[in-house]
Amino acid sequence: MNQITPASAFQTAPPALQIRGLDKSFTVAGRTLKVLEDIDLSVRSGEFVTIVGASGCGKSTLLRLILGLDLDYQGAVLVDGAPVQRPGLDRSIVFQDHRLLPWLTVEANVAAALRRSSLSRAQKQAAVREHLDLVGLTPFARAYPAQLSGGMAQRVAIARALVNRPRFLLLDEPLGALDALTRLRLQDELKRIVEHEKTTALLVTHDVDEAVHLGHRIVVMQPHPGRIATVLAIPEAARRDRSSRAFIALRDEVLRLLGVNTGTGAEPRPTGAPGTFEKRDHQERQDA
Ligand SMILES: Nc1ncnc2c1ncn2[C@@H]1O[C@H](COP(=O)(O)OP(=O)(O)O)[C@@H](O)[C@H]1O
Ligand SMILES: [Mg+2]
């Protein structure tokens, strides 16, 4: 169950996703705002890439472009070398809010994602059962979303995202609204599930600990305009053990890159939970 694929395993695989020279702007009321600048990123099949960066640095926008929801950009977003032209069953997303349909049961919510699938009825039923089992929710198949805890609802959202066996699972702060304990549990669950499904995952998170625990690599972004400051490989020891030296060293390095004081110098520790950074940190830097 705790089999972990080392980062080195991906160095020989061809890139499944390539983002090249990506620039993205929005024009609002005649003013053009550059949101993403010169993004270059290659992700290999089966890799788990985590993305951290201040609010507003374009993380969600980047996921939307990978999904194919917005084609208005410069540069290239390629899957297996071909430009992404529209949303497809090969790419799915989980958001911070579960977005389940309240009038459908858990199993019907998961089944709804199979609407456009070419599977037979029996195959669809089997896929739903299998994915509810994968997220540990078989006993709740007939429950309604309102009867679930926040963590359980996110598990359903994860099952729904995976039921088509997508190549890419995009996760936009999927655990952001959960309490700390549920969040820690679901981090381990998510890691197990992604390994099991052999999905290529991109996770956006505000939680640096989460990014280091889950990723093979961590992308650190900077705002105004959003760009990649650096991409760091996450050593196996750091992924495996949240109390390891490797974990703490990498976490502190990422926090420093994000402009958060880690408390190792003379300055006071930042407020908020350890390992997290908030919009305020970014705001203060802007105001400074
Ligand atoms: N549809 C849109 N129209 C105009 N501006 C947008 C739109 N979507 C996002 N933005 C702006 O782009 C920037 C990046 O947003 P977003 O990708 O949501 O950042 P993040 O997910 O990193 O917090 C923000 O300044 C946001 O206000
Ligand atoms: Mg966002």
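^ adenosine-5'-diphosphate complex. Residues 91-165 form one domain. The pocket of magnesium ion (ligand 2) is lined by residues 59-60, 172 (CB under 6 Å).
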